[in-house]
Structure formats: C-alpha cells, structure tokens
C-alpha cells in the first residue's frame, strides 16, 4: 500500500517568509494524523532549538503517524534528531560528481564511507528506527553513483531510499528523465544485489510537473510519496497533499481510507499561519472547486 510522507513542517518552512511556531506545528501534525498520513517530517532539529522543541513535542504527542526528523549526514546532527524521540530519521548526502568534487572535495568512496558511518551509528542507537537515505539531487547524479550509495546505505541499516528530484528536472514525457525510469532502475539494480528497501520520491514543482511525476512514480511501484499542504516548499514547492490524495483515491483499488473531510480545515490553518492564501481555483479545497466530486471535503464529521 502506498504511504504518504508530509513535509509541510520541514520542506514547507523553506518557502520564503513561512514560519510555524511550535504550537502551530503540533496543530498541523494533529490534522495530518487525523487524515491518515503515514509519516510526518517535523523538521531538522540541528537548525535551532525551537525546531528541536517542536519535533520533540510532536514525537511525544501520541500520534499514530511516524514522526520524522531531517538531518545532514553528520553524527552530531543525527544525535540531535534522535534526542527528539523520533521514530523516523532522514539522512541526506549528495553523490553527484560535481557536488563531490566542488563542494566536498572528496571522491565517491569517501562519500560512501561517510554515509555508512552515519547510518550505522543511527541504527546502533535504535534498532526499530525507520531510516531513510537520500542521495540529494538523485536524478541529476550518475546512476552508478546512486546505486552504489543506495546499496551501501541499505547494507548499513537504511530502510528507505529516496529519489530526490531536487530541481524539478524529471518529466513523464522523456523516458530517461522520468521518475518512472528512476524508480524502476533503482529497484531492479538493488534487487540484483538482494536489497529491497522501500523507495520514496520527493518531487519538486519547478516545471509544474510535481503531481504528474508523483503519479508516474506510483505507476512505477514507489512505496512512499512526499507532499506538503498547498505544495509549500523551496522555490516552486513540491507535490500538493490534497491534489495527490484525490487522485490516488481514484487509482487505488484496495482503497485506503484517507479522511479527506479534514483537508479544508487543515488548509485553512496552514494558510492562516503561513500567510499564503489558498487560490480560489485550487483543486479540492479552493472555493471555486467542484463541490460534487464525491469526496465530501466539506464535512469531516462524516469520517469520524
């Protein structure tokens, strides 16, 4: 069954001018949990103490969703994340040739050593922790580098490999630039090594194709799709939560019951505190959107 990771509280705060106080983050997390989101990415605790406080509060709130922290590939940062009592840890480190040479001045083998060291450390601290490794800017990195890094990460203890379309590069219209291609190739190559992690996709919307790419990834068999409320995020943002759920609700035969009646209240809350207005023609939650969609978005009480 497809899982949804919501990153409103982490990626969403990368939207220029957007800030959520810890108490607001908890309210947003509670709505996401009511809807049935599987993983809530609550922030990067190493950034500042207020984010660490918010992540800790959400992790200890008794929600059904797994609560996650984002972390640079550094043991000190991982320690700060684990101190927040999270059940999910996302570690990222680029393996693109340009980044390795220009930003880090290291070779691929040195990068792999660093990735393995950090993931091994995290796994040793908590055997039940869900660990994700992201080769940052996956789709513009050499596939061989991605495969080697993903293999090393899984062998060190990672459960999930995230395909990050960091700049919105992928398109469903060109085979070797499609997220479908990257999901299929990565799964096949890891399976040849008898490695079977969950595959996650993180699609940016720079070309207006984030939703199309996410659905393409679903068609390819991805396990987890990242979203945010209103598609908030860096630059043009990422996949919009409501848009993805209304489409998946039509596609999934063995339907998972997302409580879509909470979407409007969630969107109103996020809009109020982000100071980003909801477009009147936004699908599903905009005031001009079709009210006879069969999704019953206007009355959450029907889903209790």
Which properties best describe this structure?
304 residues; alpha/beta; 8-stranded parallel beta barrel; 10 helices; 8 strands; globular; disordered C terminus
Task: Briefly characterize the structure.
The protein is of the alpha/beta class. The chain contains 10 helices and 8 strands.
Topology readout:
Layout: E1 3-6, H1 22-35, E2 39-41, H2 49-59, E3 66-72, H3 75-82, E4 88-92, H4 97-104, H5 108-125, E5 130-134, H6 143-156, E6 160-165, H7 179-192, E7 198-203, H8 210-220, E8 224-227, H9 241-251, H10 263-274
Helix pairs in contact: 1-2, 1-10, 3-5, 5-6, 7-8
Structure report:
With 304 residues, the chain is of the alpha/beta class. It is 40% helix and 13% strand. The chain has helices at residues 22-35, 49-59, 75-82, 97-104, 108-125, 143-156, 179-192, 210-220, 241-251, 263-274, and strands at 3-6, 39-41, 66-72, 88-92, 130-134, 160-165, 198-203, 224-227. Residues 298-304 have low confidence and may be disordered.
Number of helices: 10
The biggest sheet, with number of strands, parallel, antiparallel or mixed sense and barrel status, is: 8 strands, parallel, barrel
Give the radius of gyration: 19 Å
Note poorly predicted spans: 298-304
Oligomeric grouping of the chains: single chain
According to DSSP, the number of beta strands is 8
String of helices and strands: EHEHEHEHHEHEHEHEHH
| Residues in helix, % | 25-40%
Structural class: alpha/beta
**Approximately how much beta-strand content do the residues carry?**
5-15%
Mean pLDDT: 94
Order of strands in the sheet with most strands:
1-2-3-4-5-6-7-8
* Termini Cα gap: 22 Å
Shape, per Cα inertia axes: globular
